[in-house]
Write a structure and sequence with these properties.
4 strands, about 30% helix, alpha+beta, four-stranded antiparallel sheet, Alpha-Beta Plaits
Length: about 110
């Protein structure tokens, strides 16, 4: 059964802008090695945090929409937790309705009233 996820990572501000693409490519590689398909990538760029995280005040945000049959992408999650150049990450499963609305799982089927 295919599932849709959204993955956000915050890349450490100390990583040069030239190396941000390498971190993104490495993360995409982790997802595809685990059987996932990248539906879209959205690089939000460098943003200021609302509060300090690990004595840092800003980082580069990147968001992916992922479709996979692997529940929770456990290997990717573990590697992201251990990565020194990633300040934070968040992976969550999109509700079926939202995934269908975004076109990740095919056509949305209308619900019958009654």
């Amino acid at each position: 059964m295919k599932r849709a996820y959204e993955l956000m990572i915050i890349i450490d501000r100390d990583i040069p802008d030239a190396d941000v693409a390498d971190v993104m490519t490495r993360t995409e590689g982790m997802v595809t090695e685990e059987g996932g398909t990248i539906a879209s990538t959205d690089n939000w760029g460098r943003r200021r945090f609302a509060y300090e995280i690990n004595h840092k005040s800003e980082g580069t945000y990147v968001v992916w929409e992922i479709v996979t049959e692997t529940a929770g992408l456990p290997v990717t999650e573990r590697q992201l937790r251990l990565a020194d150049d990633i300040v934070r990450h968040k992976l969550f499963r999109l509700p079926e309705k939202e995934a269908a609305r975004r076109g990740l799982l095919g056509e949305a089927t209308p619900v019958e009233a009654g």
